[in-house]
Amino acid sequence: MSETVKKFLYLNRRAPYGTIYAWESLEVVLIGAAFDQDVSLAFIDDGVYQLTKNQDTAAIGMKNFSPTYAALGDYEVKKIYVEKESLEERGLTLDDLQHLVWEDEDEDWAEKDSIHLVSRAEMAAVMEDSDVVFSF
Amino acid sequence: MPIEVNGKSFETDEEGYLANINDWEPGVAEVMAKEDDLELTDEHWDIINFLREYYEEYQIAPAVRVLTKAVGKKMGKDKGNSKYLYGLFPYGPAKQACRYAGLPKPTGCV
Amino acid sequence: MSTLHTVNKSPFEKNSLDTCLGYVAGGSAVLLLEDGVYAALKGTSVEPKIKSALDSAKVYVLGPDLKARGFSEDRVIEGISVVDYAGFVDLAAENAKVQAWL
User: Fold this and answer.
1) Chain A residues with CB inside 8 Å of C63's CB?
2) Which of A73, B61, B90, C32 is within CB 3.0–4.6 Å of A102 for a Cys-Cys bond?
3) For B28-33, which contacts have Cβ atoms below 8 Å and span 24 or more sequence positions?
4) Is B106 within the bounds of a domain?
């Protein structure tokens, strides 16, 4: 491909279910993954709630899309940044979130962690380093 | 337009995908394949069942390249390639096989 | 006359909860639902506000919304009651009116 690969950052700041943003973002990420760009996902503020374990929407009559985050590795999305300050403000730790991995085909499908816990300063650097930011 | 399977009517969307994934039964795939003049073999069913399992786990229908890679991982490189999958499903392995499997149109299909 | 106040927005995103708590009179009830349920969780930066509200009002959280978001009842601040949809209906019936903080 002769086109330059751009660094896309999907910035997620909303909780799931209360609004449509989280699901819309996930759909755009999956569709955008077809374009072979360098994709990163950032979860700050209420966005960190999207990744919590044990979501069960049976009683509220909405589709539980949390299992779909586990498919991101299949879509070559390997860089998921979660902000430490946002977790702390909400009384959460990484243990409250799903364990997301991608499989390295070149290393006999070895599972590698997709989630990187970063400080606000490090997250700012991730944003600064990206070419395009999509906000949700 | 709804499709008729074993005397039952199944609702579909304008592109022929089943309206409700939970309605699906194997006969749906058989009828859809017959309309496409395709005879379903065990090899077709391996992919259809694989897609249903993928949807069950991740709640999405995979894009074609994701399907190809995942099939390669599970069933080997001789099946995890476009040539093999297009050979089975000439209208596009993700789109056509997902339709037979009762899944929605693949996410990331543009 | 008692009022059931409902808050359905995240306390980290909107000031609905803050404003609501400023208007809650003694004996009133506050129901946290949808994204409002995050305010009911232990260990958050808004926990002190909820705890002081518990001194004068009854606070409830809608269980199905909590579960949808991945949180079990043991994560809820002590003193807050978890209710289901039937409990929501009962609360609405017990109080003279429902005031929603959107």
Assistant:
1) 59
2) A73
3) B28/B3, B28/B100, B28/B102, B29/B100, B29/B101, B29/B102, B30/B5, B31/B3, B31/B4, B31/B5, B32/B3, B32/B99, B32/B100, B33/B100
4) no
